[in-house]
Amino acid sequence: MVMLGTDMKIAETPKEGLKEYVKLDPYSEWLKKEGVRVYEEYYFPSMAKIELGPWERKGGSGAVVHINNNHMPNDCHVVEIKPGGKSEPEHHMYELTFYIVSGRGATTIWQDEKKKSSFEWQAGSLFSIPLNCWYQNFNGSGLEPTRYIAVTNAPPMMRLYRDNNFIFNNPYMFTTRYAGEDDYFSGKGKLFTRRVWESNFIANAPDMALYGWKERGAGGINAMLEMADNNTKSHISEFPIGTYKKAHRHGPGAHLVLLSGTGGYSLIWTKDDRSDMIKCDWAVGSLVTVPNDNCYHQHFNSGTTRARYLALRPGDMGLYKKGRGGGGENADKSLKEGGWQVEYEDEEREIHAIFEKELKAHGATCKMKAFIPWCTGEVGPTSERDT
To answer: Is the CATH number of domain 189-321+336-386 3.30.930.10?
Structure first.
């Protein structure tokens, strides 16, 4: 026994015959009930080619990408709706943001069964469903399937309430988020300071206008997206040929999807000596997920065209200044100032050597001379105005 004061005691070992306390995870139990295929990897070369299993409720087939650790605040649903198919109507107490990988179709949304609204989408469209609204997805082609990804915050919501009847059968409608407006998904938007674009529907994310983000370096441009008044967020970033962004880290759960580009890659590592560094090669439709908040990652355009990616990520609960990226102010603040970003002058030479080797393989020229003294290339863009 361990003595505490004069009369308090704590048993060091459990009594014989007692069972170990086990608490079921409602999210894991939901996955089992759905019978859906689950992936725990954090890199996929192509979301268009990832193998799916049956998920008839969603319209045909699907899979869930979920890194099963204590850090992940979200998951990613990959769904393919069969030709001429549709999903079952549903509503739920978790948020989700859709990106259409291939095909075309439409979504019907409603709070009142007597007043439904529909909008059409195509490959490249991006939209978010308001919390707990009813919705149903339709494939607009009778010949080809359509595929989408949807990043959701289902895991923490199910674990918070621990009652999936509450998650899927809650009658409360959040009319402050959506009240049946006819133009809700019209694509109209409004630009705010710090590159914040507020819109509930983006018809073609690979081509939407972006704005300067000098903090991340080398002529990069960006838009921070506010959609459906959700806490979950997304942003789109693009950078020129022969350049790369500064290494940084932030909270877990960012899902990066390559929207355009002919080549490039991400480096991911968690150890200071980078002994666990992984290289994730890009193609349009590739997915890279940040698995934890100690994961440094850096993105490189070693191809022959500008590269653009979409980041679908957790929200900040309003605790950080808007427009700073996943992780608040620290995400683009130097390590030397207490932030989470590695400045160009502080990165290891190995990082740049890998980049120049990749550029050579693609027949492209390094444009980082303005930032990297040992660069063997040339001076390239130093701001968005140079591109």
So the answer is: no
